[in-house]
Amino acid sequence: MNxxxxxALQYEPRINNVEKNLMTVDFLxxxxxxxxxxxxxxxxxxxxxxxxxxxxxxxxxxxxxxxNFLSNLxxxxxxxxxxxxxxxxxxxxxxNTSYFFDRKGEIKGKYRKVHLYSYFGGxxxxxxxQGNNSPVVIEADFAKIGLSICFDLRFPLHFNKLMKxxxxxxxxxxxxxxPMNSANYEFELKKREMKAFSITRAVENxxxxxxxxxxxxxxxGLKSCSNSIIVSPVGEILAIGxxxxxSIYTTADTELLRxxxxxxxxxxID
Length: 270
Fold this sequence. Notes:
The chain is 26% helix and 28% strand.
């Protein structure tokens, strides 16, 4: 058995209050007493959802306030970190970007969100530029990690590509949500939808699936579904968030995963 600890965070963001949100992340991570090999943060983890905030707090590796925080978080805890997403500015474009940091706090790669959330009250495309269509898999020290973000979940071919590239754990920082005044979609069904997607993506790709989300008000009239979840390759829910602020934790058995894939080589199936 070769188990590694995965921690996914869930909290209510303070809209555009970067300092407070970073303090919350730090508190939740420090409160975990288990050995952590991978930390997964939510989408928009430092700002919540705010077009003004996206623009005001956008950064990149030349303007790296939040990136520096993520690097220090990784070094301080000796853990790999999926930095949820930040709004990354390049030229006149803004990208919804997930960075991956290794245990030394060094950037190993990044993924710019491809499938923007422009439905059910979402207006992401009004500010954010679509990333290119290249999937990203990170060669971490204990497993290959595939990157996805939120609305990507509705596009199974994205995950199929990650699996065929060798991804053993797929992470999904998200802000799965619903407009507070929605007249056509029941909130409990929206929560069930996220759970179903998470289980399906884990089973069809024979991988661990780890999603980190929020609770409560996300900004822009959107309410989170409180859907942080970690699922095993055979569809077992290993950890799931409730309606509260929480850090969900479990261990992933990479040896078991690799043995399962020897018996059922999903990467060879078209």
